[in-house]
């Protein structure tokens, strides 16, 4: 298997790697999200992941950067790549439940609510406009934007938004066993709202059933004046769908082969339907020599916080698959 | 009079103009600050000024960007320069009393307190470290940093910190009549605390009597890897003093001739004592044809939110004094 399924044809001199952080209260519903040791603590994951990427360690709280089964957070992969490249990630706060511990470009949004009890993102349009301002700002500072995200519970909001926009999509999960029935039930209620209120505006679909990251990402990516690569799995497909439905140019996407190979997600089909060009990154974690990373191959975690895009960026900047894998292994070993 | 008193010898290709926003509760003490229509509303000035610079208008609240006497906020000057240069300012939130309405790189600090009732910036060291992280981040995105600030009441905290560090400094004011006696009385109490607690660490002086902007600015400027220009008056001299006392390289500074010519401030003397190289910008507002801007020459406002540094940056980027003055006049006319 090649390291990259295909190499995007882009030229750049000043790449920027940015990660949008957000929450949806859906991640606190038991069973929905594997991105944290307990449902309530999934809300902290964007804060801890960004601390790990920015500082190289989690010191603000006594928590480990692993799933209960010992599978390392994808933030370790992203950290390893920033380290290898001598780069700093720019964090964007789209709406978090807990205050971040490292600097963030803050859009002053709020965490998304449970769409079963009311609009999930009442200020979706304002967050989109803030995203446009951020995209404007970042255009002056860089000529390639690799844009990832961290939103625990975000595959459920992705399902709600993709279906709300009329796509017969499925979505991935950080669990080995995707809680499909539970997601479908939440999605059914969102679709009912979309239908009964006759919503067609993509930002209104985000308002009803999405999360603040989506509004921020759509604003940033549609305003940024140089090439954008969306870094993530089905959550970034939802962002691509929103951008496309708003009449914008749909950016290409980078993710891991573990997302592609999730049979419950149907990722390649949805990407093709949306016209999203995808680069799949295969870091061959099965042979890397770490039992926690090997679990990615069994379908745990799979991707997150821009890990796939960070590996792609390292490759585009001339790092070999061997260097990339070696740095991931040494970084993850440093945490365990 | 030349437009620039001297031209800093720096080479750069990717300049970044950044403004640190913060509050001190001292600005709500009647008589201290002219940066707002009432003492309580001075707390809003950084939010409204940043909105004006980023969006070209103040829409979030029914307030005018002028002093009660019709003197325009220096944010109009900074907006005019960003516009002329096709640049976006990066706002840094060091600690505000009101939430911003445009995106800010947020350091998650708090507004400074009144030093007469307790430590002004209890988390000064944490904000400094957050500033270091921001400086690290901005180093990867630019090769010149022009760093301004907006802190109503900040000349009083500047006096407290300069004196607390042992400099026999005076400071400027946005009022024509500098409320010197009132500032001196606050400063006397801070000096007592510094003496009784035997404080010599510059960040502890900021903690006792400064404001969050100072901690943020010191962290950013001392970590940034390319040239920095501090854009502002006596408040930035306090930042330079903190950096110097911490053993860092003292950056050069840019401000207006209206600060230099404030007899109550003794600006050139303090700058010389601190070893700060200063470029004075003379936009000749007396002859620009606007009665509000002409008041700058009578000593009102004088400087603020990086206006002097923004004009310097425009000149460094090849704009003529005529272009600069014309754009300021057309911008200010658009607001009145």
Which characteristics define this entry?
13 helices; 336 residues; 7-stranded parallel beta sheet; homodimer
Helical fraction of chain A: 40-55%
Instruction: Please trace the helix and strand order of chain A, writing H or E for each element.
Output: EHHEEHEHHHHEHEHHEHHH
Considering residues with a beta carbon less than 8 A from a beta carbon on another chain, report the largest interface and each chain's count. Answer: A-B, 26 and 26 residues
> How much is the average pLDDT of chain A?
96
Strand count, sense and closure of the main sheet of chain A?
7 strands, parallel
| Helix/strand/pairing category of chain A | alpha/beta
Quaternary organization: homodimer
Principal-axes geometry of chain A comes out as globular
Describe the structure.
Chain A is of the alpha/beta class. In chain A, 41% of the residues lie in helices and 11% in strands. Chain A contains 13 helices and seven strands. The first copy, chain A, has helices at residues 45-55, 75-85, 124-139, 154-164, 180-196, 202-209, 212-223, 234-245, 257-260, 267-274, 291-294, 307-316, 321-334, and strands at 15-22, 90-95, 104-106, 144-150, 228-231, 253-256, 278-281. Chain A has a seven-stranded parallel sheet. In chain A, α8 links the parallel β5 (228-231) and β6. In chain A, α1 runs parallel beside α2 and α4 packs across α6. The first copy, chain A, is globular. The relative contact order of chain A is 0.20. The model of chain A has no long low-confidence stretch (mean pLDDT 96). The A-B interface holds A 14, 16, 54-55, 87-88, 90, 93, 99-108, 130, 133-134, 136-137, 140-142 and B 14, 16, 54-55, 87-88, 90, 93, 99-108, 130, 133-134, 136-137, 140-142.
